[in-house]
Amino acid sequence: MDAVLDWMNSPAATLLGAPVSWIEVIGFVTGAACVYGVARQKAWNWPVGIVNNVAFMILFFGAGLYGETVLQAIFAAVSVYGWYNWVRGANTIVGKGGLPIRDGSRMEMAGGLGAVVLATIGVAMILTHGTDSVVPWPDAFVLAASLLATYWQARKIFQHWYVWIVIDLVSIPLYFSRGLNLTAILYIGFTALCVYGLVGWRRTRQATVQSAEAGVVAA
Length: 219
What we know:
219 residues
């Protein structure tokens, strides 16, 4: 096991003057595939995402991003729920796309965003006083907001794309500051994929509404 971990953390290349480990390469590939799968509404995004979570747990712990290390473990657990929810939706709902895309309710929006604020403050305090983290606030925000985005993604709430975009914009400078250049570049790509997913989900939702309206008129 130690030999495997040593290999994962060994340099695979150098990017912008900083070494890139094999585990960072694995995280890059699986992360890009996962976000593309979400954008295309493919249920296989969830198991690929779990592999990505394990890779980033190893990577972030080594970089001193403790909040995000814990986050990846929680991601893996939530991904099991998301995988089940998407597959169940595809098996019980007739039509392309399986589980339908929907807007979050006002209560879901207010509750979710309020929870992010409170969780960010709480986790930042823990990281500040309980660890040697030098980036407690952005680390805490990414943890809290990512949990919300992942849960909304599992429920196919359309607004999760906006949350992911904000997370990506915070994560890019955070990862550059920790020398994780390949991961920072990955998150630039994530931002583009999130915009692609947002547009695609919007089109799918509009097409579903139009089909439903046409069916009502025909009836």
